[in-house]
TrEMBL record:
Name assigned to this protein: YceG-like family protein
Comp. bias regions, Basic and acidic residues: 63-75
Upper taxonomic lineage: Bacteria, Bacillati, Bacillota, Bacilli, Bacillales
Domain of life: Bacteria
Organism from which the protein derives: Aureibacillus halotolerans
Region (Disordered): 51-105
Length: 170
């Protein structure tokens, strides 16, 4: 390549960069409003996640209304036939005969390839803790990679630290 060819090529690149910068710098940038984001999420069937990790949905009000309807249905008396009354009496006798004791020990299974969040989800489904709390604890203390594969016995009253020690053996 001659010197003039190289200079012409360089000038062309500089010119192209300047043109691109002018068009991107002076073009109006669309602003996102909360309403437009909510419309997009609703249209695609998605939910927003806030900075603290909690889910928020634009459908929260209808969900609350459904809960009120369920509560009203439970409170409203339903017509009971003689057969239904007999069935209720049978159930009452069964409940008195064998009262169930609250469960004090659970077994969770950690399988190969499970993430710490999936393990935390298992514990949350049992009602023992909030999944994000355990996941954050494991990650903050750099022990998330030590979660052991297998069955782990979790007892009622264990705190986050004890549960973490149980599933990591650390």
């Amino acid at each position: 390549m001659s010197r003039n060819t190289l200079r012409s090529f360089s000038a062309g690149i500089v010119f192209a960069v300047v043109v691109v910068l002018i068009f991107t710098g002076f073009s109006p940038q669309p602003t996102l409003s909360e309403a437009s984001v909510n419309r997009y999420l609703d249209a695609n069937g998605q939910m927003a996640v806030s900075a603290d990790g909690s889910l928020s949905s634009t459908d929260e009000q209808p969900a609350a209304d459904k809960g009120d309807e369920l509560q009203k249905n439970e409170e409203s008396p339903s017509p009971v036939s003689d057969e239904g009354a007999n069935a209720d009496n049978d159930n009452a006798e069964d409940e008195n005969a064998a009262p169930e004791e609250p469960k004090t020990e659970w077994t969770i299974t950690v399988e190969e390839g499970m993430s710490t969040y999936e393990v935390s989800q298992q514990l949350e489904e049992l009602g023992l803790l909030d999944a994000s709390v355990l996941t954050n604890y494991l990650e903050d203390n750099n022990i998330a990679q030590y979660v052991q594969i297998g069955d782990h016995e979790i007892k009622a009253g264990m705190n986050i630290v004890e549960i973490a020690k149980q599933i990591t053996n650390r």
